[in-house]
Amino acid sequence: MISAALALQRPPGVRALLREATHDIHERMHGLAPFVAIETGTLGLSGYKRLLERLFVFHASVRRGLETHEAAALTSGGERLRLLRDDLLALGRSPVADPPAWVPPGGGAGLLGGAYVVQGSTLGGKVLFRQLDYLFGAELEGRRFFCGTSADAGAWSRLCSKLEDERESFAALVDGAKATFRHFEAIVGEPT
Fold first, then answer.
1. Cα 82 from Cα 76, distance rounded (Å)
2. What is the pLDDT of residues 86-142, one digit of tens each?
3. What is the dihedral of CA 87, 38, 97, 108, to 10 degrees?
């Protein structure tokens, strides 16, 4: 009984607080036109190719923005970019040129907030991977990015552990995460 009482007194973890603070903007991403079209099985192959190009721009710009900070090592972003390039090539598209770096606001904690969004997207990607069966059947080529990498779970665990060290910089974590979601929305949310 004592351990249950102590558990009730323990404050929520930073990751749980960050998830709560970004819930509304995160949910808005699920309503973006390309993702709704995938969910309903109406996104055609040409729209899907445009979506991959936009995802490449987003992920490459954020990856470049994180490169100078430890946050880059807490994501599987480099491998995921390779998978995006491979998917584009498999679908007959040349990968778009690397975009300029995009850096979330908030200093180091803001960068970790951005990494939270990027690495967290691997979880949603696995759902999209399955939803794309209508377009690809059993074929993996063209959607490996959404399948993820063997490094995703370990990167997520390391990132979540690091987030717990940032309780005193929580506002900057939230600012960085929300700005990264808005950056994603601006690039990926265009009509297909």
1. 10
2. 999 999 998 788 899 999 999 999 999 999 999 999 999 999 999 999 999 999 999
3. -110
Is residue 172's pLDDT more than 50?
A: yes
22-30 long-range contacts, CB within 8 A, separation 24+? 22/117, 22/174, 22/177, 22/178, 22/181, 25/178, 25/181, 25/182, 26/181, 28/181, 28/185, 29/181, 29/184, 29/185, 29/189, 30/124
Residues comprising the chain, all counted: 192
pLDDT at residue 1, rounded to an integer = 47
Task: Determine contact, residues 67/28, Cβ cutoff 8 Å.
Answer: no
pLDDT digits (tens, 9 = 90+) for 26-61: 999 999 999 999 999 999 999 999 999 999 999 999
pLDDT given at position 8: 59
Q: Could you give the CA distance from residue 109 to residue 177 in angstroms, rounded to a whole number? A: 9
| CA-closest candidate to residue 122, choices 96, 99, 149 | 149
Burial environment of residue 59 by CB neighbours within 10 A (0 to 12, 13 to 18, 19 or more): buried
**Which of helix, strand or coil describes residue 186?**
helix
The DSSP output letter for 31 is T
Please spell the DSSP secondary structure of 86-128, one letter per residue: HHHHHTT-PPPPPPPP---SSHHHHHHHHHHHHHHHHHHHHHH
Cα separation, 72 vs 102, in Å, equals 13
